[in-house]
Amino acid sequence: MKERVIILTIFLITGCCVITTAQTRLSREENLFRTYFDSAPRPAMDSNPSRYHFAGADLAKFKKDSVSLSRGIALLKMGKPAAALPHFQRSVENMKNYVSNASEWYLALTFLKLKKTEQAAYLFHKVAETEIHPYQNEAEVIYQRLTRPGKR
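RE: above sequence
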């Protein structure tokens, strides 16, 4: 009887350690996402911010796209990347003539969270190559980690 208790105890302790280790070992994508996700987007680092003064219909469209971006960020923060994806895709597409910096960044993070590594790497590379992008340095680090085998 004593042997059974000892064996059962060892089995339970070993099982708990294995479960804990498995839970703490995150995928490369999840690790990068947790490191770089921030729900507060950075402002554009534009040398000519006056060109972003809108009038009439353009202002209404810009506000609508900004709301879409905010909704996407909120969904991503809640752990719902699939639901956030269309919001970021819409923002990137609609805001490409204005300020799509934050939209591209969050779209890349969404692809990362969804483990769509090729799409994420493409966007991180694009952001890293964009002059004065507010996420340029971080995007370069993530891109390098995604494209270099064995690096985490």
